[in-house]
Specification:
The complex is a heterodimer.
Chain A lengths: L1 H51 L4 H15 L4 H25 L6 H39 L2 H7 L4 H38 L6 H11 L2 H27 L8 H29 L1
Helix pairs in contact in A: 1-6, 1-8, 2-6, 3-4, 3-6, 4-6, 4-7, 4-8, 4-9, 6-8, 8-9
Chain B lengths: L1 E9 L7 E10 L4 E5 L6 H8 L7 E6 L2 E2 L9 H4 L2 E4 L12 H13 L8 H9 L15 H13 L5 E4 L8 H16 L10 E6 L11 E6 L2 E5 L2 H16 L9
Parallel strand pairs in B: 3-8, 3-9, 6-7, 7-8
Antiparallel strand pairs in B: 1-2, 1-4, 4-5, 9-10
Helix pairs in contact in B: 3-5
The chains are: A mainly alpha, B alpha/beta.
Chain lengths: 280, 256
């Protein structure tokens, strides 16, 4: 009887396991395929930036400036709100604890570690991804769906040069600049919150703590990290909007894919830089 | 000027698919080709291939005597810019650019100038296409009938030697269709806007009838093949056959 029951279950379970493996295998292959596509798209875009940045400069350079304005200056108020919130959050959580054990002199170190190295760049990248990255996918996806890419090719205009390069440069420079402003805003608002809580910390002491905690490597790695975030967001957004022919109905799922891949890419870069910080 | 020898035309949107096979087509200076084709039968891919913007799946494409197969499309830019292609739907304008900017875009890209600094010749071009009063409008603000004018003006802005138009008359009102046919007729016989040089033209259409009396060479895309017709009489017969097939009896298309 026992044996019989086991035999009855086998045909039910075996296909389930097979299906799960099949789905896993397909997901893995799809993931690898997407990774290959993203890598190839990034290399093509970088190649076009290097070889064609001066081509049609009078037409393309104003487009790059417009994208920098769109990805940077227009997001400045939102980034400042996030900076104030981040400063209050970090100081609010840590000051009470540090005061209790008499270790206020570590406020600067904590601000540098948390805001400059980690949360500042990552928060900026996520905000830019949500605000500009999604808009980029929708714009490019709609352009592709409406045949603008074929039109550019018909006019002898390189679609990567015309559509992608300004957006990539705008996003990379925008993420870098906004990260710097977010960090400055968070450090300033952090001190303000500490001041309002009557923490005995003079401004010059706070600045000295920050200066002591910051090294040259922090500036270099911050620049590299933010450029990396900007590049990942730009490539994921442009690739999902442009690389495949879309219908208008496919634009929304492509936007979701771009956000997911952007978040994963930024998380991987962040993990890489955590390792670098631990090694230096 | 353009020669396709035993060309299999690839789909521009679907890797590996061939939309036309065994195409032998030669466009010589002064030709006025009218090619009958359904909307989804590969006319856009044929013209993209003929303009050097799309690699053929197989076969040889020669632009102005130069075999294009060893080159990437960007290496052939000099040849490609002598051919202008206006895709269906009025050339698919860029929605964020004004009419004047849409028209000037290829010129400014290839001649490296700002979109707002295009000069007197562009004003003449806009006037030729009847666009003076629409120049600063966005495409979304244009009446449907004007969109093709913009596409045509943009197609002429680099003073091409060959103009390819994909289904330009599809969905046009009779008056607008007549305007287009007259303009193309003027360009074909030499117009001052192109310094009096006769323009070589090829168009695709869903019916020959409007083009009879204008076109000089005719062809039909059917069953993934391009069939060259002997002349206008064959074109008229092809329209008659299509009408008969559609409604089950012989019709006189010349009544329209």
């Amino acid at each position: 009887m026992e044996r019989g029951e086991k035999t009855d279950l086998m045909p039910v379970n075996a296909p389930l396991v097979g299906d799960a493996l099949d789905r896993l295998g397909r997901a893995l292959l799809d993931g690898l395929d997407t990774l290959r596509g993203l890598g190839a798209f990034a290399l093509i875009t970088l190649g076009v930036i290097v070889t064609r940045l001066q081509v049609a400069g009078k037409l393309i350079h104003p487009m790059i400036r417009r994208q920098i304005h769109r990805c940077g200056l227009r997001l400045f108020p939102m980034i400042m709100v996030a900076a104030v919130a981040l400063g209050l959050l970090v100081i609010g959580q840590t000051v009470a604890l540090l005061s209790r054990i008499g270790a206020q002199e570590y406020i600067g170190v904590i601000m540098v570690t948390v805001v400059v190295r980690e949360l500042g760049p990552l928060a900026t990248a996520m905000l830019v991804l949500g605000r500009v990255g999604t808009a980029t996918v929708i714009e490019l996806g709609s352009a592709r769906a409406q045949g603008e890419v074929e039109t550019l090719e018909a006019l002898g205009i390189d679609p990567i040069h015309f559509l992608v390069v300004p957006r990539v440069l705008g996003l990379v420079l925008g993420v870098f600049a906004l990260t710097v402003y977010l960090i400055l805003g968070a450090l300033a608002s952090g001190y303000l919150f500490a001041f309002l809580q009557d923490i005995p910390l003079r401004p010059e002491e706070y600045v000295q703590q920050l200066a002591a905690a910051l090294g040259y490597a922090d500036f270099v790695l911050l620049a590299l990290k933010t450029f990396g975030f900007g590049l990942v967001i730009a490539v994921a957004s442009c690739y999902h909007g442009l690389a495949r022919p879309l219908t208008l109905e496919e634009v929304a799922p492509a936007t979701i894919r771009a956000v997911v891949h952007g978040v994963i890419g930024c998380a991987l870069i962040d993990a890489l830089f955590v390792l670098v910080y631990l090694l230096i | 000027m353009i020669e396709l020898a035993n060309v299999d035309v690839a789909s521009p949107v679907e890797d590996g698919r061939r939309v036309l096979e065994g195409v032998d087509w030669r466009v010589a200076a002064g030709n006025y080709w009218v090619i009958k084709s359904g909307l989804e039968e590969g006319a856009d891919a044929l013209f993209l291939t003929a303009a050097g913007a799309l690699r053929p799946a197989s076969g040889v494409v020669r632009l102005f005597g130069r075999d294009t197969s060893p080159f990437n499309p960007e290496d052939l830019l000099e040849q490609r810019l002598r051919i202008s292609l206006v895709l269906s739907g009025g050339g698919r304008l860029f929605p964020e650019l004004t009419v004047a900017e849409n028209v000037a875009l290829p010129y400014c890209y290839h001649r490296n100038c700002e979109l707002c600094a295009t000069g007197e010749w562009f004003e003449k071009l806009l006037a030729f296409a009847g666009l003076e009063e629409w120049a600063e409008r966005l495409p979304s603000e244009l009446p449907r009938a004007i969109i093709l004018n913009v596409g045509l003006a943009r197609g002429l802005c680099l003073k091409p030697e060959v103009l390819l138009l994909e289904h330009p008359t599809f969905g046009l009102e009779l008056g607008q269709r007549r305007w287009l046919l007259e303009k193309l007729g003027q360009l074909s016989s030499g117009h001052p806007i192109l310094d009096g040089r006769p323009l070589t033209i090829a168009v695709t259409t869903t019916e020959f009838q409007p083009w009879l009396g204008y076109g000089r060479q005719f062809g039909v895309i059917e069953g993934k093949r391009l069939r060259i017709l002997a002349g206008e009489a064959d074109a008229r017969a092809a329209d008659d056959a299509a009408g008969t097939q559609l409604i089950g009896r012989k019709v006189d298309l010349s009544e329209r």
